[in-house]
Design goal:
The structure holds two protein chains of two kinds. Chain A is mainly α. Chain B is mainly alpha-helical. The chains are: A mainly alpha, B mainly alpha.
Chain lengths: 170, 201
Amino acid sequence: MLDNMKNSTEKPTLEELFDSKRLHQPSLSASSKFDDDVKIRTLNSFHSYNSLTTNKYLILFTVLFFSCIPFYYFLLSDVSVSNKSVITYTEQKSSILVEESSQNSKLSDDLSSSEFEYVENSYLVSSSTDYEKSFALKTMVLENDTQLYTSISLDDDTFNSQEMSHNHTF
Amino acid sequence: MDASIDKRKLVTNCDIDDLVESAISGNFEAFDSIMVHYRDRLFGVIYNMTLNHSDAADLTQETFVKAFRSISKFKRKSSFFTWIYRIGVNLTLTFLKKKRSKYFFSFDQFFGNTSNSDSQLFLSKENSSVKNTLLNELHEKLNEALSKLSDKHRTIVVLYEIDGISHKEIAEIMNCTEGTVRSRLHYAKLQLQSLLSDYVR
């Protein structure tokens, strides 16, 4: 039938064809099944979505938990090993220092001198600096030979060596 | 009269906002009313994009399922109508893209589901049955021509010329500028005019 239209003068315009199509839009109103299908699909998707979300978090938690166990034990072992090595190293180093100091005769003599009176500090020691401060010389008598302990770098004409030696003598 | 038609008549544009609010808070009944309000129109758009009745019905269902699932994400920056159309159009474009290689247009069931009442026929001299036959054949030719357009051009023609949506709303739905919409529409109509030159003036 359309073939007859090809030579016809009564052809519709494109806009008229669109208008005609607009009026002949397919409808779903007759299909009551559509609404039920949408409801079923919506509820199903919600159910599956919630189950998927719950399962997803459960799986994630399980994987994280089991992967953390070996890591935790690894950390524990690592800390104990490092603590042991630090303690061993400190003990060795201390004994070496004590041995070295006992070989220094001048230092030994000074430490055994009765002219020095050591006073034990009463405050709590919490750091290495505090530890150094925890002992102090209460009295000290300076003699001429204390210049032996002064620094060589202070041997300058412009300085008063006697005065400087006093300043740098402990 | 169908119960769903009664329900649709009760829903006005003012009610839609209230229904959307209610649906956001999880009221399925409210969403059901929204669905009845937009169902046929959305189906029409999707049908004209896919030109397949069962695919269109399936995609319309999927649109509503997806819309209900993500209705809490609706931020009211656009109208609800634009939002749900955007979901439908995007789903259909994705569907067409996936199906392009094996896609063929079937015009099945289209004529069985159309109502012939109140049609503004241009061939007024013909009797009713001849008019309908001729009209059906013309619609078939139009569908054929539409199928030769790209998905985006076809979507714009369907939304503007058949569904009567404004350029601005189409731009929001398709996430492009109004200029792009006008340009694509102009190009698509030129193509259609050329493809249907035997049947339209």
